[in-house]
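Regression check, magnesium ion case 387:
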Amino acid sequence: KLRLKKWRQPVASVVELGGVKVGREDVVRDDPTNNVPDSIFSKLSMQLHRRDHHPLGILKNAIYEYFDSTYSNKFEKFDDLSPIVSVKENFDDVLVPSDHVSRSYNDTYYLDSQTLLRCHTSAHQAEFLRKGHTQFLVTGDVYHRDSIDSTHYPAFHQMEGFRVFSEDDWAASGIDATYFAAGDLKKCLEGLARHLFGAVDMRWVDTYFPFTNPSFELEIYFKEDWLEVLGCGVTEQEILKRNGKSNNVAWAFGLGLERLAMVLFDIPDIRLFWSTDERFTSQFSKGQLGVKFKAFSKYPPCYKDISFWINESFTENNFCEVVRGVAGDLAEEVQLIDNFTNKKGMTSHCYRIAYRSMERSLTDEEINDLQWKVRDQVENKFNVVIR
Ligand code: FA5
Ligand code: MG
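Current build output:
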């Protein structure tokens, strides 16, 4: 038990976000309108994207470099906005329908019924437009309640790009304003992909976002598979109209920094970005894009199963959060391995938890201790019967 404590990072009780001091008690509260755990509060002060020697900071700077060298009319850059935003900013302002799943307590971290941890950097679009910005990049940490595996983590980073055009821009081209913006957007992002990766196979996939139309995703061919790296599109006219830009068109994109960095640096597990182990951090330095990460010796995983009868209120995200709350980054993966309903209509789930440290080998004692804590919390929090 002592050993476990030693590896836990201390949690500061006050963090500074966008120049404002925020106390733990403002973010984590025992209250039905709040679902932020301590493990998430501890991420708020990390600011990985603002570290020049961290893969995410190196990537951010390389993207800045592309925009600076490509556009004579400079994009303004922001990377220090507080991730604490209102429901209005995160959802209403970008036209997310009132019944959209992303608004649920199961998908998003709420501080209270009107305040949340942004789930995308698009939360800042409307305010920036209102303030008169027309070309900008906003980088920041974003938060999703989610499953546990090598490419999903409840905290990650996005960069938003936004460009407003006026009639002079598209009139000269002789093409329809929306087509003009969509063409400029694709050219910009294809150029960015080449700047970062050199020659790569990429493809555009049509998709849907409430705030853009048409909407696209860019996929990059990596390790024999297509990887989605960003979403983008031509901004819905309603957003421009509401924010004083009725006579303009615009495009926007939101890219996932971890996804791109995993490809660029060959980083196999998304948890590594949060590692303070010197064997990780010492491999990256300012301005050095595309240095391939050399894995330090991989320690063996340890698998533990847990089965219980679920009830109506049980969700997998809630279960994953219990696991993360107990094991932190020692939880590598949670998989549903068995799911059946008996004659009485009761449903049983069996989850297999993979525990592994990227930094050291775990003792049996330590893992058993974690598993018992998970069992205990599952029973108490979800009121379910362990089998
Ligand atoms: C969005 O968040 C939109 N706001 C993007 C956007 C902006 C579209 C502006 C149009 C205009 P999405 O949820 O798909 O979309 O996330 C965007 C990118 O973030 C993804 O392509 C992916 O690269 C990354 N991403 C999303 N979820 C995760 C996750 N759980 N872990 C790591 N990266 C993620
Ligand atoms: Mg997507």
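Comparison notes: Residues 1-8 have pLDDT under 50 and may be disordered. The radius of gyration is 22 Å. No diff flagged against the previous build.
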